[in-house]
Amino acid sequence: MEKITRRYFYKIILNIIGFFTIGSAFIKLNKKSISSDTIVEKYKEAMYYKVI
Amino acid sequence: MISSGKIVQCKLCPKECKLPQGGRGDCRVRVNIGNKLYSLVYGKPCAVHVDPIEKKPMFHFLPGARAFSIATAGCNLHCKFCQNWEISQTPPEETSNYNLSPQDIVNETLLSKCETIAYTYSDPMIYFEYTYDTAVIAKTKGIRNILVTASYINPEPLRKLCKVVHGANVDIKAFDEKFYQNVCSARLKPVLDALLIYKEEGVFVEITNLLVSTLNDDPKIIKKMCDWIVKELGDDIPMHFSRFWPMYQLKNLPPTPVSTLMQARDIALNCGLRYVYVGNVPGLEAENTYCPNCHNCIIKRIGFSVENNLVTANGKCSICGYSIKGVWT
To answer: What ipTM, to 2 d.p.?
Structure first.
C-alpha cells in the first residue's frame, strides 16, 4: 500500500473542501438560476405497462 | 368508485408490480391513475450537481471529464446500506424538486460545459421515461450519457435505453441471491442478465461491488463473482470494490476494513481481471490504472482528481502501446 505523502494529504483535504463548497454553491446557483420556460407535465404517462 | 378501476401491471422492472386504482409501485414513483400508469418524477429531479466522472466511478471513460448529474426520488431496490437513502427511499412529494424538462437538462449541461450527463444517485431505471427522453436529446448534441445503476430492469426497456446510452457503472450488490433478497429486496439473476445485454448492445460498462463488512465480503463469493465476470463479460472490464460507510439501516456495522478491500482486489486480479480498483479510500495505489502489459502506472488519481494520464487518445498505453479498454475521446 502506498503511503500518503504530506503533499497528497493536503490535496485530499482540498478535494474534500472543494467538493462540498463547490457542490453547495452549485446547488444554491441552481435554486436561484435554473428555471424553465417549459411546462413539465404534472404526470407523464409511463412506458411499459399493461392493464389487467 | 375506486373499486371499479382496473389493475395496471408495470412491466419496467422484474418486480412487475400490480397496481390497483391509485396504487403505487414498489419504487414509489409510478402510479395507476384511471387505468393508466404514470411517472410522478418526469422532469422533477431532486438532485442536480456537477461531479467529476471519477465520482461515479467511471475510470476508463473520458478521465477528468465533468458529469452533469441528476436524480429523482425513489428506487426499486431497498438496500439496507443505501448511501443515498434520503432520496432513494422517499416518495417524490417529500423531496425538494426542480422543474426541468429533458431539454432544460441538456441546455444546463452545455452551459456547465459538461461532456457527459450521469443519471445517478438513486436509480435511473425508475425514472426511465425522463432518462430516455433526456438521453435522446443529449446524444444529438454530442453529450455522452452514463447510467449509474443497479440495473434491475426488464430486458425490453433496457435494450431501448442502450440505444442512446454510452456507458454504465453497474452495481453488483453481491454474487448471492440471498443477499439480494434479504438486504436489497431484489434478485441477482436479472442484474446478471442486464450485464449481458449491455455487452450485446455495445455499452461500455464498469462494475462496482460495495463491500459491506460481514455481509457480502466472503472471499468465496467475491471469487465466484469475478470468475463469472471474466467468463461472461471479459477480463478487461474495470472493477471497483467500494468501501461501505455505516448508513441508513446498517449503522451498527463498522466501515469496511481497507484490508478486506485489498483482499478483494487481490482475488479479482488472481481471477484474471486486469483493472481492479478500490473506492472510497483516497490515497491508495489501487486508485490508479496500471498497464496490464508493462505494469507502469498510466493514470494517477488522488480521490476524484486525475493527476496524470498516459493513455493516448486512441486508447493505448503511451509507454508500451498496449490497448487499454475504455472510452478515451
So the answer is: 0.88
